[in-house]
Specification:
single chain; about 240 residues; alpha/beta; about 20% strand; globular
Length: about 240
């Protein structure tokens, strides 16, 4: 086990920001954790999935399962049933980068899923093997959150680990652990639709700065005692909250 952790927030296809934030990661001393939601929307989701796959297989990174990994996997497993919801939530951008722009007008959902699995045989197994959570010392890293109504947080449902919002961040953290999560953007957590700083409350630490919407991509260095450094890259290309 490496002495520290470096965790990156929700990337959502922003490959340029992804590569830039990795410059702050010390792979010799820091375990890399990707909080989930590598693709959908953004600049180039395919490249983000490819880089995430490379980091897991070559550098020992931990990639957590986000709700967008969940939707992509459901689309690949049952395309006719799940295409509409996936496309509506940014998946069309991912499909186009794996295939080509306009693919949805040429092919059925089944054909698109089949081509993606054929051309990128590593993708489905990569998604299936993403962790629901990662424990390190006094920390829990998770995409959505945990069910704090349960006495044992580990009994959280698979769906809640990747999807939960209310019922987690607005509850008392009784776990005795620091919980680092993505999924719910910090402008929403702050309630002002503007603040992209890390959100910290009762040992809950929200790190999704809404980079794909013009906010901030966070790369956070943790040691056993807490946050050592928050590296942040603002998405100057969009500037939604300017």
């Amino acid at each position: 086990m490496k002495q520290d952790v470096f965790v990156i927030g929700d990337i959502h296809g922003e490959i340029t920001l992804f590569k830039e934030i990795l410059k702050y990661w010390d792979e010799k001393t820091q375990q890399l954790v990707l909080i989930g939601d590598l693709g959908d929307r953004g600049e180039n989701p395919k490249e983000c999935f490819q880089l995430g796959y490379q980091l897991v297989n070559e550098k020992g990174a931990v990639c957590l399962k986000g709700n967008h990994e969940d939707m992509l996997l459901r689309f690949l497993h049952d395309p006719e049933e799940n295409y509409s919801l996936y496309a509506l939530n940014g998946g069309l951008k991912t499909i186009e980068t794996f295939l080509h722009t306009g693919a949805e007008a040429e092919y059925s959902p089944t054909e698109m899923a089949s081509m993606i699995k054929s051309h990128y045989p590593w993708l489905e197994s990569f998604l299936e093997n993403c962790f629901l959570y990662f424990e390190w010392n006094d920390y829990i890293f998770v995409h959505g959150g945990v069910d704090l109504s349960k006495k044992d947080w580990r009994k959280t449902s698979d769906e809640d680990f990747v999807w939960i919002r209310e019922g987690f961040y607005d509850q008392h953290n009784h776990t005795g652990r620091k919980i680092v999560f993505g999924h719910t953007i910090t402008p929403m957590l702050y309630g002002d639709n503007q603040t992209t700083d890390l959100w910290v409350k009762e040992d809950l630490i929200g790190i999704d700065g809404g980079a794909v919407y013009g906010g901030t991509l966070h790369g956070v260095h943790f040691d056993r005692s807490g946050i050592v450094q928050d590296y942040r890259i603002d998405n100057q290309a969009k500037k939604l909250w300017q």
